[in-house]
Amino acid sequence: MSTFNIMIVGVGGQGTLLASRILGNAVISEGYDVKVSEVHGMSQRGGSVVTYVKFGDKVYSPIVDKGEADIILAFELLEAYRALPYLKKGGKMIINDQQINPMPVITGAAQYPQNIKEKLSQVCDITVVDALSMAEKAGNIKAVNVVLIGVMAKNTDIPYETWTDTIKTTVPEKFLEVNLKAFDLGYNSKQ
Q1: Would you say the pTM of this structure is higher than 0.85?
Q2: Do 54 and 28 touch, CB atoms closer than 8 A?
Q3: Residue span of the structural domain in which 154 resides
Q4: Smallest Cα–Cα separation from 38: which of 53, 23, 25?
Q5: How far apart are CA 143 and CA 183, in angstroms?
Q6: Long-range pairs of 84-88 with CB within 8 A, sequence gap ≥ 24
Q7: Residue 119 within any structural domain of the chain
Q8: Does residue 109 form part of some domain?
């Protein structure tokens, strides 16, 4: 297998790092070589957080360069828009239909871009889901990350059981039930 590149983008506090751990552990379970790299912006203040997950027979570097991402998993609309240059031709974006205003928008120094979904759909293959509502239905709005992992998992060759087993070994016990529900809601959502 050649290298497969996934970029996870969101803002601080959305669980991008847990999502990358679940993804990385699931892929390791399937016998692939995996490299994960985290790039933090002002994550403590709601800034951008980017994680790269690369896997294949042999992976030498965790960094995903522009035009290399097979999948971009975006936890927020503006972060999806910002990540577009990294998507390769024929790649796919899975996007949480949520707007989280960055600090410049909050302070009035900038405006949140309009029509992001429409702009992205004109240039690439996108799947937009209301992961926040699904996470709420699962029992915790912080489970958006695992809802999105579920949506992505449905689009991979990795078996369902590998994903759920990985969640069981990666997520703390007290959050396990909510995260398994969140995963199932994402996995079984209509796309």
Answers
A1: yes
A2: no
A3: 4-99+114-187
A4: 53
A5: 9
A6: 84/120, 84/123, 84/124, 86/7, 87/7, 87/124, 88/5
A7: yes
A8: no
3-state secondary structure 113-163: CCCHHHHHHCCCEEEEECHHHHHHHHCCHHHHHHHHHHHHHHCCCCCHHHH
Q: Tell me, what CATH number does 144's domain have? A: 3.40.920.10
Instruction: Give the per-residue SS3 of 26-75.
Output: HHHHCCCEEEEEEEECCHHHCCEEEEEEEEECCCCCCCCCCCCEEEEEEC
Q: Is 71 inside a domain boundary?
A: yes
Quote the radius of gyration of the chain (alpha carbons, Å): 16
What CA–CA distance (Å, rounded) separates 16 from 2? 25
Instruction: Say how many domains are in the chain.
Output: 1
Q: Which residues pair with 189 in a beta bridge?
A: none
In a domain, 126, yes or no: yes
Mean pLDDT by 10 residues, the chain (191 residues): 90 86 95 85 67 93 93 96 96 95 89 95 96 97 96 93 97 95 96 68
Distance between CA atoms of 110 and 104, rounded to whole angstroms?
Answer: 5
